[in-house]
UniProtKB/TrEMBL annotation:
This is DUF3347 domain-containing protein. It comes from Leptospira brenneri.
Length: 167
């Protein structure tokens, strides 16, 4: 094999490599997840869920809380069937976290904390949810969403005013 034919083969291999690289790059760029916009109905469902969360957290602020998660759960059912993939994913993440009736408050607080983190994502990503503010308590290292600007810590009955408004 002479030098020119070796050089020709290397150029041919290099061209195949370049074309393969371009095809791979185009394929990678075309595989981005499609962003599905939230419609008004989705925004309203998110608002309903956040309103139910408000009701539950206000119950936890009482001396002897008796939270009823039934309506929150029903709103989750509606979110799951809304047709929006993000709402469905959030619903699937929230469902196993719902406190059961008669569970002790300490285990409920852990679940509520995880629920609040998902609700914060919903508030951030779904438009028109600005009436809810994020609060954070460094003493218990937990966040929550509520209306208003006054700190009302649902996690620490002995220090309801512990925390700060984040957004």
């Amino acid at each position: 094999m002479n030098f020119n034919s070796q050089l020709g083969k290397k150029n041919q291999n290099m061209n195949v490599f370049r074309i393969s690289l371009i095809v791979f790059a185009i394929f990678t760029l075309s595989c981005k997840e499609e962003v599905i916009p939230f419609e008004t109905a989705h925004e309203n469902l998110a608002a309903k869920l956040l309103a139910e969360n408000q009701i539950l957290l206000e119950e936890y602020l009482k001396e002897d809380p008796k939270p009823n998660w039934k309506t929150f759960s029903e709103v989750l059912d509606t979110l799951a069937t809304s047709g929006h993939p993000k709402l469905k994913t959030w619903t699937e993440s929230l469902r196993p976290l719902l406190p059961t009736t008669g569970s002790d408050l300490e285990s409920s607080y852990e679940k509520i904390s995880k629920i609040q983190e998902i609700l914060i994502q919903i508030k951030t990503e779904v438009p028109n949810q600005s009436q809810y503010n994020r609060f954070y308590c460094p003493m218990v290292d937990k966040s929550w969403l509520m209306t208003g600007r006054e700190v009302k810590n649902p996690y620490a009955p002995e220090m309801r005013d512990c925390g700060e408004l984040l957004q």
